[in-house]
Amino acid sequence: MRRILGLGSRNKIGRTIPKAGRAPSGVPDSFSPEEKMKNEKVLINGMEPIRIQKARHFIHENCADEISLRQVAQAVSTSTNYLSEKFKEATGVNFVRYVALARYEKAATLLREGPLRVSEIAFATGFQSLSQFNRVFKKLAGQSPTEYRAAMRPGQNGSG
Description:
This protein is about 55% helix and about 0% strand. It is mainly alpha-helical. It folds into 2 domains: about 60 residues, no CATH class; about 55 residues, Arc Repressor Mutant, subunit A (Orthogonal Bundle), CATH 1.10.10. The radius of gyration is 25 Å and the shape is elongated.
């Protein structure tokens, strides 16, 4: 392309001279977070880039709190758009659904094992309202939280 433009070995600024300690021409000496993530070779379980694994860990550790894609992106040092795209590629679900699933899993454990009331579990697992919790739980489990608890605790009739 340089020959076509008549530039020869020069570009618009002038001849490129590599400086000592710099990467060879054509290879940037610093990468943006997105480029680092693209070039990341360390995989967890042979499938998942380390930043996605860190993002998943952050979500599971903080899912009881209000959590946003922006917070997670900052925690793993990348942009929200890029994390969203790569997160879905790696996990198969989008960020919002993944957070809902993490909260659901925690709630299901508490329903099976804990003495908390359903409303306490809803708020302890990060849901913003009891109706949101009931709706999400029923969609994922196929039954209401109360029905799920009764099915998972045979021999208990809910009193108690």
